[in-house]
Design goal:
Blueprint (H helix, E strand, L loop, with lengths): L1 H15 L4 E2 L4 E6 L2 E8 L5 E8 L4 E10 L8 E9 L3 E11 L9 E12 L3 E3 L4 E4 L4 E8 L5 E8 L3 E9 L10 E9 L3 E11 L9 E9 L1
Parallel strand pairs: 1-11, 2-8, 3-9, 10-16
Antiparallel strand pairs: 3-6, 4-7, 5-6, 7-8, 11-14, 12-15, 13-14, 15-16
Length: 224
């Protein structure tokens, strides 16, 4: 109990002094009918390939896979890409997982994620970016999101990878006495192992399930 209290006060002190890092979101935007390109490096000779997953269905479509080898040397990495279009307005989450086809998704060894906010009409081209937060081992960092529990919607997250763990969660309630006023939720994490990890937040009603999510947030972390 004493160790737990010490850890709690240590984290509280870090946040109070402003020493915790606020993670930057991996977010993109585009318009309906825009063409989007997403690229990432892979090494097919190892058997590990990137696989793409998008939710919800219908916002982004026509995922065309392409490859670009930049070297003739055996075993050299190449660039894998996807071309997609925005079919309708909405928020979409793209998750990339690196695994061997014969081992399956459960044996993924690396992850990336990004969100795409589709609004308005357009016929241009967008290069989607994957933003990564680089931290050192032991770093304390936070994510703060606004939610309105009175509507039934709350933020729920999953961590892909083993490099980080949650240390604390704090809810700041609005004190304006306004009915239905939103609150702010702050999660505190710590980098506990080297490598890549991804935190994916989904905003949904618990009884409706994560498939009904109406908003997404994605944070990529590289621990060195």
């Amino acid at each position: 109990m004493k160790k737990a209290l010490t850890a709690f006060f240590y984290i509280a002190l870090i946040i109070t002094l402003g020493l915790a890092i606020e993670l930057k979101e991996s977010a993109n935007s585009m318009s309906v009918n825009d063409l989007a390109i997403l690229e990432i490096q892979e090494n097919p000779s190892t058997g590990y390939l990137w696989h793409i997953f998008a939710e919800p269905t219908g916002v982004l479509r026509n995922f065309l896979e392409e490859h670009n080898t930049r070297s003739i040397m055996p075993g050299a990495p190449s660039v894998k890409g996807w071309i997609m279009t925005a079919a309708k307005e909405g928020k979409a989450l793209i998750t990339l997982k690196l695994f061997r086809q014969w081992e399956g998704e459960k044996h993924s060894v690396d992850f990336r994620a990004l969100t795409v906010d589709v609004t308005g009409q357009g016929k241009g081209q967008v290069d989607l970016k994957i933003l990564t937060n680089e931290v050192t081992l032991g770093t304390i960092f936070t994510v703060t999101l606004e939610e309105n529990a009175s509507t039934g919607y709350t933020w729920q997250y999953v961590v892909l990878g083993d490099g980080i763990m949650e240390k604390n969660k704090e809810i700041s309630v609005d004190k304006s006495d306004k009915v239905g006023a939103p609150s702010k939720v702050t999660w505190t994490f710590q980098a506990v192992d080297e490598g890549y990890s991804t935190i994916i937040f989904r905003y949904f009603r618990s009884w409706e399930g994560k498939e009904s999510a109406v908003d997404y947030k994605a944070y990529n972390i590289s621990v060195k």
